[in-house]
């Protein structure tokens, strides 16, 4: 069994390194940790190096280890993790704050529906003003999936 693995390693190191790179990348995607991206990239680089400049296995592992350490440290130094500022792009209602739209019908008791960005939304009118059908409104806040709007003059 070991002879077969050694034979495979000696004859096809490129594919073994690419398999390791793919496995590490799949684990990174599954976990989203950010720590396995650099070893995955390092394994891919070693795969290319093993194809272009054949080395023995210990040299390839040494190159992989050094590349992993260097890329991980460089990635942590130059690509710091930061939280995205601004609205969440996955929050369909939250991204509408500041957008303008049209009322679908006149608001009744301060509640109605508005048409914004190709979609109809439930809305609550801010203030005591009356809004007719087709009037322009602006989204000022979002509570759940209900928009708070104000009349635009």
Question: Could you walk me through the main structural features you see in this protein, from its secondary elements to its overall organization?
Answer:
It is a single chain. The chain has 153 residues and is an alpha+beta fold. The protein folds into two domains: 2-78, no CATH class; 94-151, OB fold (Dihydrolipoamide Acetyltransferase, E2P), CATH 2.40.50. The protein contains four helices and five strands. It has helices at residues 2-11, 13-31, 37-52, 57-78, and strands spanning 100-103, 111-116, 119-125, 136-143, 146-151. A five-stranded mixed beta barrel has the order 1-2-3-5-4. A hairpin with a 7-residue loop joins β1 (100-103) and β2. α3 crosses α4 (57-78). It is rod-shaped, with a radius of gyration of 28 Å. The model has no long low-confidence stretch (mean pLDDT 85). One of its GO terms (molecular function) is peptidase activity. It is found in: Membrane. This is Membrane protein implicated in regulation of membrane protease activity. Residues 94-150 form the NfeD-like C-terminal domain. The chain crosses the membrane at residues 12-30, 35-53, 59-79.
Extract low-pLDDT stretches.
none
In helices, the fraction of residues equals 40-55%
Distance between the termini: 80 Å
Derived from helix and strand composition plus strand pairing, the structural class reads: alpha+beta
Mean pLDDT: 85
Can you count the beta strands?
Answer: 5
What is the element string, with H for helices and E for strands?
A: HHHHEEEEE
**Physical arrangement of strands within the biggest beta sheet:** 1-2-3-5-4
The total number of structural domains is 2
Radius of gyration: 28 Å
